[in-house]
Design brief:
The chain is α+β, with helices and mostly antiparallel strands. 51% of the residues lie in helices and 18% in strands. The chain folds into 2 domains: 65 residues, Orthogonal Bundle (Helix Hairpins), CATH 1.10.287; 146 residues, Heat Shock Protein 90 (2-Layer Sandwich), CATH 3.30.565. The strands form 2 sheets. Strands 2-4-5-7-6 form a 5-stranded mixed beta sheet, covered by helices on one side. A two-stranded antiparallel ribbon has the order 1-3. 28% of the residues are buried.
Length: 223
Amino acid sequence: MRREFVANVSHELRTPLTAIQGFTETLQQGAWEEGEADRFLGIIEKEVIRLARLIDDLLILSRLEAVADIPGGRSNLKECTQSALEVLEQKIEERGIEVDVEIQSDLVVDINADDLQQVLINLTDNGITHSPPGSTLFISGGREQNQVFWAIKDQGPGIPEEDQSRVFERFYRVDKGRSRESGGTGLGLSIVRHIVSRAGGRVTLESTPGQGSTFIVYLQAAK
């Protein structure tokens, strides 16, 4: 498993580095005079951002695996959802997506705010990425006995049944080309599962090709 992980990391790091090196060399060889400088610099910037996101996600995974227990805490689900949406506000506007939120204001869960927000940001970012422009992203939250649930439903292409059991694996992508084009690292859902399971919760997926996907997080309600 370690060898496979190192191989995957090496591949994911090499891809943006190769692009950065290639376009830098092209500029050094005189592309400035060909009117392509802005386009090449834009590609370089995009790959640098992608590389930074990959490193950030790897550091998060490393931190999660290095610590036996995640810090405890109590977090308000609606407040953390609003914070996550603020972080992703620009991407939501760029994609032209509507977000419909229905969460009770008194839902408090047994997990610290930083980890909860990381889960919500990753799942919301995933939903935005796979939502067609002009569509609606539905986010809801409520209670089920002694648990609190948070659900996000997109109107995207959905996930084939054969891929659904693997989407939480590191670096696994259903649509590899589209995920890389959007800047995805292939680690977001893996981080979600890791945080949620360590907090004593679970995350599920419901999806039908052509009808979108719904991710549901279940966490212990704070007493």
